[in-house]
Amino acid sequence: MLPNLRNTLCAARSCVFEQVRNASARSKGNRACRQDGAQKGQEYGYKLRSGQFAKQGVMLVKQRLPRFFPGLNVEVRGEKLSLHAMVPGKVFVTREKVNINPECAVAKHFDDRYMDAVYKKYYHVVPEPQYNKFQLIANI
């Protein structure tokens, strides 16, 4: 049926069918050029800011070097030094003056700074106040 259809179309419009040859092998170019869209980075930085609400276990900061430090109800997880909330609550970021012990392992990150005034940024998660919505079993 295909040859008949081709003959009728060609007779009606006098068209020419061309065959297109596709590539039989993949191109040998750069692998990054074959990816979909632009290459994305690791997306370091803060995920939640001061004043926002954090659920338990959510990531607050992803960092390579200790730029932000854990405060109240915040823990460090993984080798990327990411900070995670231990309890649900409101996030606060504070800047506090500290005295660095030169023998401390963290002191190597502060070698190029003037050591009399060193400020660190701390992430804190303050839980929401829990109201007395319960009753003792003896009172029921």
Automatic annotation (TrEMBL):
Please state which protein family the record places this protein in.
Belongs to the bacterial ribosomal protein bL27 family.
Q: Which UniProt keywords apply?
A: Ribonucleoprotein, Ribosomal protein
Q: Which InterPro entries match?
A: Ribosomal_bL27
Which Gene Ontology CC terms are recorded? mitochondrial large ribosomal subunit
Q: Which terms under GO biological process does the entry name?
A: translation
User: What is the organism field in this record?
Assistant: Galendromus occidentalis (western predatory mite)
Q: Which residues form the signal peptide?
A: none
Q: Which gene encodes it?
A: LOC100899533
Record protein name field: Uncharacterized protein LOC100899533
An MF annotation (GO) of this entry: structural constituent of ribosome
